[in-house]
Records
---
Amino acid sequence: MTDAAPQPVFLKDYTPFGFLVDQVELNVHLHPTATRVRAKIAFRPNPAARDRRFFLHGEDLTLISAAIDGTPVTPEITPEGLSCPVPEAPFTWEAEVEIAPAENTALEGLYMSNGMYCTQCEAEGFRKITFYPDRPDVMAPFRVRIDGDLPVLLSNGNPVAQGAGWAEWNDPWPKPSYLFALVAGELVATSDRFTTSEGREVALNVWVRPADQGKADYALDSLIRSMKWDEEVYGRAYDLDVFNIVAVDDFNMGAMENKGLNVFNSRYVLASPETATDRDYENIERIIAHEYFHNWTGDRITCRDWFQLSLKEGLTVFRDSQFSADMRSAAVKRIEDVMTLRARQFREDNGPLAHPVRPESYAEINNFYTATVYEKGAEVIGMVRRLVGPEGYAKALDLYFARHDGQACTIEDWLQVFEEATGRDLTRFKRWYSQAGTPRVKVTEDFKDGTYTLHLEQKTPPTPGQDEKLPQVIPLALGLLSPNGDEVLPTTVIELTEARQEAVFEGLAAKPVPSLLRGFSAPVILERDSTPEERAFLLAHDTDPFNKWEAGRSLAREVLIAMVTEDAAPAPAWLDALAAVVRDEALDPAFRALALRLPGEDELAEALADRGAVPDPLAIHAARERAKTAVARHLDPLWAGLYAQMACPGPYSPGAADAGRRALRLAALGYMARLDGGARAQAHFSAADNMTDEIGALSVLLETGGADEALDRFARRWGHDRLVMDKWFGLQATLAAPERAVAVTRALTEHADFTWKNPNRFRAVIGGFSANAAGFHDASGAGYDLVADWLIRLDAVNPQTAARMSTAFETWARYDEGRREKAQAALERIAAREGLSRDMGEMVGRLLAAGRIAA
Ligand code: PHE
Ligand code: ZN
């Protein structure tokens, strides 16, 4: 094990900082290995605090000089920061430090990427730039002067003045240090203007490297639509004269909401039809909106401490989902969100890394930017909205913005505005923030004399550190269908609050078919004995689009599980039901494409483990292959017609309608390839005039064999484009056949273009391979070793991304003893490394601890 187990921080230990900051002035003199940062900070005792020790965070800083009110001081310095005696009255702190951005490979603080300087300060990166109370509840206006020999020099707020080699910025809005940003480089802008509802003229710029010029139009367009939407739907207008977005190639996450200066992973900005897929466009639109929406939910109102992270992230994800639903198809967006929630958050909640939406302790906060904090956090907000209704929600949000503008808040503040605005008591509801684990709702029913009764029982399984669970408040949306397919009860929301409850419906002519958890009204697992006939019935008749899809999905899941465990043939009822959906031209092509997607291997492994079986990754993979071939054969008469019908006439457009047609067409292509040996897919690949079709056809060829030549052609065509090549690397690792996956991935890591210090490239290959369930869980343990070796290597360079990728091992404890032993050995090998980061130390410790219990 690591020498010292990382010291956790606890929510219950929160105390305010002893001082308030009235003003920050920074002067940054850029140099790759010797950047000088001079800070002048006006402090004043905080009347609300008792502890007056003056401690400033600071890491990897060389202190050149420090002074208080102009008098030099010699602070006491540790690896975490400095302390110093200070006056009991307002004072000015001045310090000069030196840092080396070119040597910063962790991509946190000030670093360099392709010759450009940029910063990443969330959560605790500002302390690598200067000494500061680097905590979100210390908010201050910042004034920044940048000196550097580069044409574009940016920071937060409004531009004040600039000349050759310098620029000055002023951000009047008090903000925590994690929202500080600075960018300097040779950049070009795609620009527009926006006039806010309050009459403010805002200059909008999306900055990219010159070679990427022309690929920022969609990001800019998404920004304008986001600004308009937030005014119309939430009444929130933008509050500075400029809004800058910068694309960088080396970035640990998706993007960052720095005040007035959003910094983005270039994959979520750059797009052209030839290089970006429909999915890329959708992600750009969503993430541009997400970061923009943070301006109010995150920047103007921020978090008191990092335990409250979901206050900004859950809410902002909820807001960006609403936006995407408005821009595209609400039904398709909901289905996609639930698929991701189940694949990532349910998996997390059911494993060794389970934690509440508001964690109570952490060793490294970077490890808590999770699906639980983000996606489950967003679901919790969706539930509040369902409980209080759209008007109550709107009233509560108005109160939230009015009351807390300029503050650093807690989940309590957030719930309080709902209680006041709607009169509803949310005491019990608050458990969603403190209790980890996915609740299971078990449903049985009876019908007698026209009365239909649902018996509902809820239970949340134990999670690490939480054995006993209390009942949750669960809004359960449901409808009832009569046996002839008519809806006899339209969508109604009932509230579960107890461990056991009943819902009674009277005056029914016949026993209805229930459509439960419509729209996925709560993040729970529904347990109910249902027949394939009933599922097929709902797939055909349900008026709720989510549940219509869900019926098909659960039917497919059952069929696949029977294929794995009983070696059963794929049920004809399923194949017929699927054919009916695909044939139904009244349905959105995007919906039909989703219906044709089979549950993934990890989802099936989870379902098997849930039934007490030990999943066999190879058997699951093989069953899924057989099922796909059966679908291909059974629906054979449909494919050619569908393929022809779904062609998009006219030039490429990334809109939802065309994207849906392409998705359905590519699904047809994939099934056809199982019958024609890939001939049509080869032709499709050669004829493609956009990346969606090109990569779609390449994926089909990779899955069905015969991709070698196409892979070569692709690499020759796109070798110069790093974002496109990420796809090339990622697909091969993800789609390699189980027995070849380790070798294919190893070869990819030996490729000259495997620039592993770039997080996108590392994620493509190592993350891609981890998503190849049958390959990663190879019985030899070679997959575990391969990933462990690379995690160790990356950890020394970039702990944050390395630790994040360790979630590949999240499910190790569900497998057979042989695999468990090998996975445990790989994890222990990581844990034993000298100099392991706090990030990785915490992750591996949690992965091992819970796994050992289960083993
Ligand atoms: N706050 C960012 C978001 O919008 C995520 C992020 C966290 C980015 C930490 C970088 C570092 O979700
Ligand atoms: Zn966010």
Note: The chain has a mean pLDDT of 97.
---
Amino acid sequence: MDSILVTGNGPLNGQIPIAGAKNACLTLMPATLLSEEPLTLTNAPRLSDIKTMTLLLQSLGAEVSSLQDGQVLAMSSHDLTSHVADYDIVRKMRASNLVLGPMLARLGQAVVSLPGGCAIGARPMDLHIHGLEALGAEIELKDGYLHAKAPKGLKGAVVELSFASVGATENIMMAATLAKGTTVIKNAAREPEIVDLADCLRKMGAQIEGDGSPDITIQGVDRLHGATHQVVTDRIELGTYMLAPAICGGEVELLGGRRSLLESFCAKLEAAGIEITENENSLTVCRKNGRVRAVDVVTEPFPGFPTDLQAQMMALMCTAEGTSVLEEKIFENRFMHAPELVRMGAEIEVHGGHATVTGVEKLKGAPVMATDLRASVSLILAGMAAEGETKVSRVYHLDRGYEHVVRKLSGVGAKIERIKEQS
Ligand code: UD1
């Protein structure tokens, strides 16, 4: 298993290009199942999660070709041959559950294993099931698989989500595009990836309004056609690399970055003393002198502070002046990076959904272990600001969500290398 070796060093300078969003791409890819005609995605990120979704779609009979070094995905679901999403693929990644809605809408049946993914909480699928049942699907759980049927097709309905789940909103929205009549999703998720999916579905002929607000209205159509769509910028990769100069000092330009993708995160960085400038097609982040200030953070659905940046923000707070409280409101088990950061000299106390971080002047390099995708990159950020060497093991988590991480960070002056090891 490979590991990453980071040696703490001084200020960073230069540019980092930001890729297309993993989480958008993972919901745009299953949208191909909704149409017999080709769907092409540009600006796709080169990640192992995208390969996993490719394998899943191929196992259902879709054709998926990766072109232009992986940045273009050409897909066709003309002849689907299976409606079963197998455990062996689904267990690797929770987003596999996003084939459920499209398959049900197109084929009238779907069998999908309950998903795996990062071990950051229970992550049930009750909201997906409730929403699809409201559209007329019959769903039962047998042997770890959800068996869903809609023999007479899906019918539009009002679906009120008790929590603004991203995945449930996506699954219900995709299914509703081919349902008869009108569907209204109330308390829908508002993440930029939802808007990106709606944009793509509209290009395919879907009638959707209100995406980006809590009420999404979908008028079902008989069929969807082919389209080409550019994947939105990855706001989590953007936020992660904005934290690199915030932690190490220096000035870094994030190419493709937009403030509107991360407003609440930007406001917290500024409160901590970081300068952010929005340019025509990039963001410049600068930390000149002294330590950052401690700020409190509460994770919330968009437009709140993203849970997917909580671990990385904690790495920054570890060296801030003062004490900060980070409250995790989305996932109940998302502080697994805290004990690893403590191994590097951080002062963190976790009580339930709160972590209290008292900043220290300097972290110290140590061998640490990545426990999930965002935790792994928080340890790299911490290592970049620490004295000496930090070896982060189990970096396969990182490969799920960050393309060319070593190249991107060493390009702005970080001392980082990947060590290939025999498993
Ligand atoms: C997506 C993102 C993930 C991000 C999360 C929250 C993708 C591929 N992944 O995950 O990176 O961290 O949004 O921004 O887009 N829940 C239920 N029942 C359900 C569904 C969800 O209780 O049926 C709970 C989950 O356990 C969790 C919370 O709702 O506590 C948020 O989950 P959700 O918004 O659905 O996240 P995902 O779509 O899985």
Note: The first strand starts at residue 3 and ends at 7.
